[in-house]
């Protein structure tokens, strides 16, 4: 029984069909279909019920999926155990934020690939929080303040931020001095988030309001430069605007707490060595 056939079946089962599984694996749909046909022929059972609308697991497929996933995981552990020290192979799928992933994280991913020529590094950039398990990622790099989750997280570095606005906005609307005053201003947000600020020994939480929202930090920085409102953004996104005077810091007596850069992975006692190596490399760059 071919291990690649098993891996392909698990991807199809988790992705919900041949087409999304082919995209995850980076191969054609015909290759995925051929591997599935070969596996079903060897087992003598139908694992997928194929219709014009797609495919779904049969009862046998549901049962076999868990066994196949465990076999693939054990093979990965065995391969890592016998590899020469430092060598990595296989595939590492990483979910990363679009806002600054291509500029700050991409060089780290490229360095990982350079150090380990047998490792296939697949990075996907998106500012939404992907379902790591459901979407088939080995890990994700996330920024901010992580809430409760069944995922395992490792902090790899700090992320410092600032509250900023354009000089035109400040001239027209004034600058808030306290978190309560901030509630009367237009906030530039990704959704309905909570903003936090440090006041001596305590942390103040507020729920800002605003008419402009975007799921990308760079877009919020552009809106702040245009004078639409006040934004809380990482320094790496606004440092050039602050240097040029296009943005100015506001409410500096109540700084936001330092956020974090995290590697999160599916629950399990021991992370795969390729995830550990990526984590160590990120700590080397950002810690």
TrEMBL record:
Domain of life: Bacteria
Gene Ontology terms for molecular function: DNA-binding transcription factor activity; sequence-specific DNA binding
Single Gene Ontology BP annotation: DNA-templated transcription
Start and end residues of each HTH lysR-type domain: 1-58
The UniProt record lists the keyword Transcription regulation: yes
InterPro entries: LysR-type_TF_proteobact-type, LysR_HTH_N, LysR_subst-bd, WH-like_DNA-bd_sf, WH_DNA-bd_sf
Keywords of this entry: DNA-binding, Transcription, Transcription regulation
UniProt similarity note: Belongs to the LysR transcriptional regulatory family.
Function: NodD regulates the expression of the nodABCFE genes which encode other nodulation proteins. NodD is also a negative regulator of its own expression. Binds flavonoids as inducers.
This protein's name: LysR family transcriptional regulator
Species of the source: Bradyrhizobium rifense
């Amino acid at each position: 029984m071919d291990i690649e056939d098993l891996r392909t079946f698990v991807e199809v089962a988790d992705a919900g069909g041949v087409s999304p599984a082919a995209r995850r694996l980076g191969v054609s749909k015909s290759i995925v279909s051929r591997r599935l046909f070969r596996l079903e022929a060897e087992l003598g059972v139908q694992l997928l019920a194929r219709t014009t609308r797609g495919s779904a697991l049969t009862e046998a497929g549901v049962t076999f999926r868990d066994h196949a996933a465990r076999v693939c995981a054990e093979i990965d552990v065995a391969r890592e155990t016998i590899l020469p020290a430092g060598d990595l192979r296989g595939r590492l799928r990483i979910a990363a934020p679009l806002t600054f992933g291509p500029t700050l994280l991409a060089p780290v991913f490229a360095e990982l690939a350079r150090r380990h020529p047998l490792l296939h590094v697949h990075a996907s950039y998106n500012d939404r929080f992907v379902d790591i398990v459901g979407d088939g990622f080995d890990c994700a790099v996330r920024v901010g303040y992580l809430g409760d989750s069944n995922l395992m997280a490792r902090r790899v570095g700090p992320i410092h931020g600032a509250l900023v606005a354009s000089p035109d906005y400040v001239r027209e609307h004034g600058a808030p001095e306290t978190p309560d005053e901030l509630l009367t201003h237009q906030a530039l947000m990704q959704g309905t988030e909570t903003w936090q600020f440090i006041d001596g020994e305590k942390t103040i939480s507020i729920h800002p309001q605003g008419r402009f929202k975007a799921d990308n930090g760079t877009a919020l920085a552009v809106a702040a430069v245009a004078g639409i409102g006040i934004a809380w953004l990482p320094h790496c996104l606004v440092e050039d605007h602050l240097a040029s005077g296009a943005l100015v810091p506001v409410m500096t007596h109540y700084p936001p707490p330092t956020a974090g850069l995290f590697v999160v992975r599916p629950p399990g006692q021991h992370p795969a060595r390729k995830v550990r190596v990526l984590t160590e490399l990120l700590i080397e760059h950002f810690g």
